[in-house]
Specification:
Layout: E1 2-5, E2 8-11, H1 22-26, E3 29-37, E4 40-41, H2 44-57, H3 67-78, E5 85-93, E6 111-118, H4 123-128, E7 130-136, H5 151-162, E8 167-172, E9 175-179, E10 183-188, E11 191-194, H6 205-216, E12 221-223, H7 228-233, E13 236-241, E14 245-252, E15 255-256, H8 264-277, H9 285-291
Parallel strand pairs: 7-8, 7-14, 11-12
Antiparallel strand pairs: 1-2, 1-6, 3-4, 3-5, 5-6, 8-9, 10-11, 10-13, 13-14, 14-15
The protein binds N-(5'-phosphopyridoxyl)-D-alanine.
Cofactor: pyridoxal 5'-phosphate
Catalytic activity: D-alanine + 2-oxoglutarate = D-glutamate + pyruvate
Subunit structure: Homodimer.
Length: about 290
């Protein structure tokens, strides 16, 4: 794959990163995962805005990253990924400097890396639903920043795999925050519910689109905490994210949610999201009611 590093395009295998890179030494960096559908990047501006927000919060020297949309388009073209799905990965770190905790000297350039790979969505999980486990949220209190420091997510996801679950869902003070790589939703009494945006969750772009679909198609929607106990009783659960889109959660630790089948509201949202992504319909109440 042709990848990008600091203004240059070159084969991924030829990319060399300094051992003094602050991403390597301190996880002092940010990342984004964007998806392209037949060469069309989904919501690129929203990803760049989130990256800029993170850069501002981490006091990076540079906060303007809109050029990365062109870089991503270039990667699609150079790697001939205009057909099918692809995942574009972007990582920005505070640059290269001797290992001292404080910021490097002014003028130290950020390290900007981007790569791409073809992507096969897990259609079986999207149609049949997944099992999840609940794990304590041991992450830091700024998970609104898409930091590359993902150890709690790595450990939780590994535990999920070892327990035949596709995702681990974090619990903080008895309430669900989010998944290791997704936002979490419940359907309770016909209302779609998700945790409000705070410093404890990532402002997911898929989450935002799901909320917009609910609002435009008059599906009752509420932002509030979902307690762990409530999740077990919910009619439907689902996760949302760039890689999982809208994926039903049908079991928690092997126990059925509802009847153990993907719920009707979840599946409607999944379809509406797919159509939005492929640009085939504008989601409005009328279209939604007529189609689903
Ligand atoms: N993860 N919450 C967390 C902790 C995430 O890591 C992600 C995305 C999301 C969903 O955000 P979005 O809808 O913008 O993808 C929520 C990416 C895909 C990853 O780490 O691979």
């Amino acid at each position: 794959m042709i990848s990008y590093l600091n203004g240059h395009y070159l084969p991924k295998g030829e990319i060399a990163i300094s051992p003094d890179d602050r991403g390597f030494l301190f996880a002092d960096g940010l990342y984004e995962v964007m998806r392209s559908y037949d060469g069309e990047i989904f919501q690129p501006q929203a990803h760049i805005e989130r990256l800029s927000y993170g850069a501002e919060q981490l006091r990076f020297q540079q906060m303007e990253f809109s050029f990365l949309i062109e870089v991503a388009e270039e990667l699609i073209g150079r790697n001939q990924l205009n057909r099918g799905d692809a995942i574009i990965y972007i990582q920005v770190t505070r640059g290269i400097a001797p290992r001292l905790h404080k910021f490097p000297p002014p003028g130290t350039s950020l390290t900007v890396y981007a790569t791409i790979r073809p992507f096969q969505p897990k259609t079986d999980e999207m149609t049949e639903g997944i099992n999840v486990i609940f794990v304590p949220d041991q992450r830091w209190a700024r998970t609104d920043i898409k930091s590359i420091g993902l150890l709690p997510n790595v450990l939780a996801q590994q535990r999920a795999m070892e327990n035949n679950a596709a995702e681990a869902v974090f619990i903080r003070d008895g309430a669900i925050t989010e998944g290791t790589r997704s936002n979490f939703f419940a359907v309770i009494g016909g209302t779609v519910i998700t945790r409000p945006r705070t410093n404890y969750i990532l402002a997911g772009i898929t989450r935002k689109m799901v909320i917009e679909i609910c609002q435009k198609s008059s599906i009752p929607f509420q932002e509030r905490s979902i307690f762990e106990t409530e999740a077990h009783e919910a009619q439907e659960l689902f996760i949302a994210g760039t890689t999982v889109e809208v994926t039903p959660v049908v079991q928690i630790e092997g126990k059925n949610v509802g009847n153990g089948k993907p719920g009707p509201i979840t599946m409607k949202l999944q379809k509406a999201f797919a159509e939005l992504v492929h640009g085939t319909i504008e989601v409005t109440e009328k279209n939604f009611r007529n189609k689903y």
